[in-house]
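Notes from hallway chat w/ T.B., transcribed later so I don't forget. T.B. wanted the structure written out for a chain they're using in a teaching module, and asked if we could keep both sequence and structure tokens in one place. Agreed to drop them here.
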Amino acid sequence: MKRNNQISGMASSANCACGNERKAVAVDPEIKAATLRRLSRIAGQIRGLEKMVEQERYCADILVQISSVQEALRGASRHLLRNHLQHCAADAISRGPESANAMYDELLDLVYRHSR
């Protein structure tokens, strides 16, 4: 069976501007630490949400907390996008037109997904 170059709307490894292993070119230590702290806090928020549901707390209160988690996730996304632009995208663009075009497509897909 012929493999499609797009998997679930994401670029496949063959088209990945960051290489076949799908690993970051580099990870800024400050961004990594900040993102890990945010994700740890988000995990705690999720556990709190589970307890709220188990305790049958007022729906509006739960919805407010869900909005808080969503905003925290957006913050983590911003950190990771900054790292991606500074390292992966910059590297791909500097390697030439083919790599740059693949990265432009990837970035457009990311912007589209995060603007919903």
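Follow-up for T.B.: The first strand starts at residue 6 and ends at 7. Might be a good example for the class.
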